[in-house]
Amino acid sequence: MRRLIGLILTLTILTTITPAKAEDQSKITCKNQSTKQENIIKVQEEKKPEYISKSQFPITSLNPTTATNPQGAFYPGFRAANQLLIYSSEYGNKTGTNEYGSEAIVRNGILTEFTGSDSIIPPDGFVISGHGKASKWMKQNLIIGAEIKIDRENKILESTITPESYIFKANQGIERVSRIIQENQRTIKGYEARQSEIYLANANIKLNEAKRYIGLKEYDKVQQLANEAYLLSNQALYNAIPARVGELHGIWLRPTEKNTAEVVQTLNRLQQSGISNVFLETYYHGYTIFPSKTLAANGVRAQRQEFQGWDPLKVWIDEAHKRNMKVHVWFQTFYVGNEDISKNPQHVLSANPGWANVQFKNYKADKPVPSTAEHNGYFLDPSNPEVQKYLITLISEISNNYNIDGLNIDYIRYPVSLPRNFPAYLESTWGYTSHARKEFMNSYEVDPVTLTLENPLWQKWIEYRQSKVTNLVANVKPAVKNKNILISAVIFPDVKESSINKLQNWKPWGLNRHVDAFTPLVMGSDESLAKDYVLQIKKLVGNNVYVLPGLFEPFTSGSPADLLLQLEAARDAGASGIVIFDYTHLTQDFIEALNARAFR
Predict the structure, then answer these.
(1) Most buried one in 68, 209, 310, 465, CB count within 10 A?
(2) What CA–CA distance (Å, rounded) separates 478 from 517?
(3) pTM for this one?
(4) CB–CB of 145/168 below 8 Å?
(5) HEC states along 568-592?
């Protein structure tokens, strides 16, 4: 009886509390409502609108191709700057876009979820995808539950937010946490959900009140109460997902801290959130955060300019270990940044221009040319033995001189090309360096620049380049030597796609135990995506490696709720933990959600 009385009192208190944080949409007022006192009677007599807001944005292309959207020809998903695109099932299974934008799923004319990037295209709907200005419009004018219409003739997308939109969103939040609680009660012995059930009960109360105000056409109250119901459902979710013993909680972090005090502040914040593994970006854009003898010996600036005068890597390691936290060196292997190398003689490709990777369409160029599909960035040539020696020597320097806990090799691939079934695929491919062409010609008596896709040797050319990436991966463990250092590789989880578009065939890396763990990139928000990727990897390589999905919710402006749902899905598939991308975008709402229970 005491417990029942306590529960009733708690529900009563929570019901009367106004949330401190309301969503941006709660600031929208009903169209044509007047705030002037003298117009109150007139407003009451007028018929109130059936919608809260409408907005439109021009569509660049529906199911884009190189022909229908030439501006996006060499970009992932054919999406160029500031464009808004629509992808239906006629386009394929996924959008293929990169993480720099926004995407949303529409089913039966209703926006049902935001998905980040590279979204799975529903067979019964479509994906809205935006970059730049289009992405900004999406964030400002779309919500879950919005009614979406496409004017195909004029290529216009229209979003209408109605009172029912907020009801839909709140109801969706309540249903998903109810599902999580029921599943955990079924599968976890002794599972406790009392706090979640309190929040859930209050969410239902608020939702029922919101529905009552729809009949009264009090749309401002509908919006307010439905938003409160949604926020309460999120709190219920945060408290519904328990912690798991032995799970790796990591985050990718590019250091901006200028001194030891700032490093300490960041580590304390991470420790309080339950994140204990820092994947510290140590070698990126072709430079190290510490003074490197390897770089200096090859004509490269020995240390990033902003860190000259101290050794951040040593400070991060020392301070992390004081807190029983771990530091993994995050290492951008073949990617060397997008600065104007003509203005910097100390860039690796200024000092060693013959080390640059070369795209088919630019194989006659007399200087390094960047990849337009990769932020106009430059890549090193995996086939060049000097490049391989340079990178392995740098890895040895790090592991020999610093007490690191892990090494996370990223950009362990060629620059991305178009999918093989697209007309411009051949000219978008990479690897046509003088060294690779000579070596391939010595083996097969044909210059790869003369190959067509129909030539039987085309597959050999693919395998040749894949093997060069694998060769470097295979040499990492011998270079590190210390068995206590966890070697992990950043991979694109669809191995069929990554083997062709990025020449990253990671299956043998796992089968041959070249690495200890994979950190597959999960750039979409769909929880089933995280689960499917983990299952696919484990099916291909078994338990030879740990699987630590890289979840992008903070970076893609996703929600804390979506991050937790992906965490739960990845766990169910057998993941050994997660790595979050990235610290810069880890706002306080994400920390509070993780620390409520899941990372506690």
Answers:
(1) 465
(2) 16
(3) 0.89
(4) yes
(5) HHHHHHCCCEEEEECHHHCCHHHHH
